[in-house]
């Protein structure tokens, strides 16, 4: 399995371990993440968690395209009001987990990675990390991802990231300046910085910590739920047909991995 967990000092470290794929998630990974979060709900030894990725080049690059394209891909409902998105349940809050979760980001975090990042209490990253949303470049609507990150970023920043697609990447420094990232760590140091914070949280009375987490989330929960209720219809109306999306992905791959300039800001 490409998801690893380790518990020490009351902190569970959940690691995406597929560096050869930039920690992209296949369907089994998505199911495993959901099961891990659900399992932590009843683990009395865990009072805080950290989620990270291995390899240094990427935290997570979202869904593995091979998992959702081709003849083996799961069928989607024929309705603009329903959508089977395998990443919708990969986050801790989607699985009713209310211990504090800290994300440690090294390298790229894009697209479906935002399902995880948006459900962490706060993010720690390095200046070398890069955040971007490729959906529009491939003829896809950024709905759930943009809506989730709109709870974490200023409107103009999330709108620009979602619309600019693969042409721009937000640096760790810029993410820190806009409040998406709460702390910048030295290269290779994001995980240790996150663990340091998680150990502090794990040392506090559990009920007080989880109650505070729940209170903070309650503040924005209604707006988030109302927005995401519109996502399936927006995706159904705005996405290019899957075969056209596949052509855009393939064209990008034929020219060495990208067809457009990438600007880091």
From TrEMBL:
InterPro entries: ClpP/crotonase-like_dom_sf, Enoyl-CoA_hydra/iso. It holds the Pfam family ECH_1. It comes from the Bacteria. CDD domains: crotonase-like. This is Enoyl-CoA hydratase/isomerase family protein. The lineage of its organism: Bacteria, Bacillati, Actinomycetota, Actinomycetes, Kitasatosporales. Belongs to the enoyl-CoA hydratase/isomerase family.
